[in-house]
Amino acid sequence: MDQLLAIDMDFCTDNSDCRVHDMSAQKQSGLAWVKANTDLINDWVNQDGLALLRGLNIVSTHQFSTILETIFGEPLKQYVYRSSPRTALKNNIYTTTEYHADQVILQHNENAYSNSWPKRMGFFCVVPATTGGNTPLADSRAVYNHIPMRIREKFERLGVMYVRNYGDIDLPWQEVFQTQSKSDVEQYCHANDIQFEWVDGDKLQTRQCRPAVVTHPSSGEKVWFNQAHLFHCSSMDSAVVQSMRSSIGEANLPRNAYFGDGTDIDPQDIAAINDVYRGLTFSYQWQRNDILLLDNMLYTHGREAYSGPRKVLVGMA
Q1: Burial of 19 (C-beta count, 10 Å sphere; 0-12/13-18/19+)
Q2: pLDDT value, residue 248
Q3: What share of the chain is helix, strand, coil (3-state, %, to 5)?
Q4: Does Oxidoreductase show up as a keyword for this record (predicted)?
Q5: Could you give the percent of the chain with pLDDT greater than 70?
Q6: Domain identity same for 148 and 246
Q7: Which pairing describes strands 50-54 and 20-22: parallel, antiparallel, or unpaired?
Q8: Within this chain, do residues 171 and 194 fall inside the same structural domain, yes or no?
Q9: What was the pLDDT predicted at 16?
Q10: pTM summary value
Q11: Nearest-CA neighbor of 144 among 14, 280, 261?
Q12: What is the pLDDT at residue 147?
């Protein structure tokens, strides 16, 4: 089997330690090869935090979901308490975030704003973009270590409060919670330590406090694990934010982030965090049929702007 595996540094856009496993030479179907090598694949992810499987023959979305369930050893997770628009396909496979092609999606660990998140994620490139469109990655351990100590210690001490207002600007609560029932939303919030308030009858605001730093359950290492930089209003275009503040008030912004005690986060601290991410991010050039496996606690992901058609799917466990 060794002759079928390769780690090719040329696939990376910088000098980071890449983990690309090229199976182009093997003649089995992608699913057959994965079933025969599940332990090996999990060893790669456990050791490196990620693995890019290249050259597998994958013919359908159903086969991709079966491949992920074989590797993860459990059914895929339904995506509830959403933060971005997606299309649900069969077997808990989803499109990646459907923002406009000219928009960059900042680095994030999936569902880090929640008390429930996927441990493993798998991405499947069906159609690579004509230009751009790659999925940048960053090591959450390195992010933790590179954030200035003054900022890191305050976040670690206070945590993050995520505030969301659903509806007119952000996703409607019916899409986020995947239900039409207000009582279902309330039950979910009670079960997941989310404070909620119904405003004007049918509008929903939620607040949830979460740690900014967590400890990886296997390695015992501290990782930067939050989405303060995504939720904070300074990440939006400043003119748009000022306009919304004037028209609806800061408390009604579609989303915002504060320290866990409710105090403001300095926009300069958010800028410093984004600078750390930019300095540590690397990416692979997507190729058709690539499968990228991530430990969601160890690695963040994002999306480059792109041109042309692009289709990348995701499953979580």
Answers
A1: buried
A2: 66
A3: 35, 25, 40
A4: yes
A5: 89
A6: yes
A7: parallel
A8: yes
A9: 46
A10: 0.90
A11: 280
A12: 98
Q: In degrees rounded to 5, what are phi and psi of residue 80?
A: -115, 160
Closest CA to 277 of 226, 239, 237, 216: 226
In the predicted structure, residue 221 carries a pLDDT above the cut 70: yes
Question: What is the mean predicted confidence (pLDDT) over 213-222?
Answer: 96
Residue count (the chain): 317
pLDDT tens-digit profile of 69-112? 999 999 999 988 888 889 999 999 999 999 999 999 999 999 99
Please provide the distance, in angstroms rounded to a whole number, between the alpha carbons at the two ends of the chain. 28
CA separation for the pair 120, 73 (Å, rounded): 11
The DSSP H or E segment spanning 300 is strand 299-303
Contact 282, 156 (CB under 8 A): no
* Full domain range(s) for residue 38: 2-103+110-136+283-316
Q: How far is CA 55 from CA 5, 19, 27, 33, 63, in A?
A: 10, 14, 10, 11, 15
**Residue 176 CA to chain centroid, in angstroms?**
15
Both 172 and 222 in one domain: the answer is yes
Based on the structure, what is the number of domains in the chain? 2
The pLDDT of residue 238: 61
Q: Are 166 and 132 in a shared domain?
A: no
* Statement to judge: residues 65 and 192 lie in one domain: no
Residue 7 has pLDDT above 70, yes or no: no
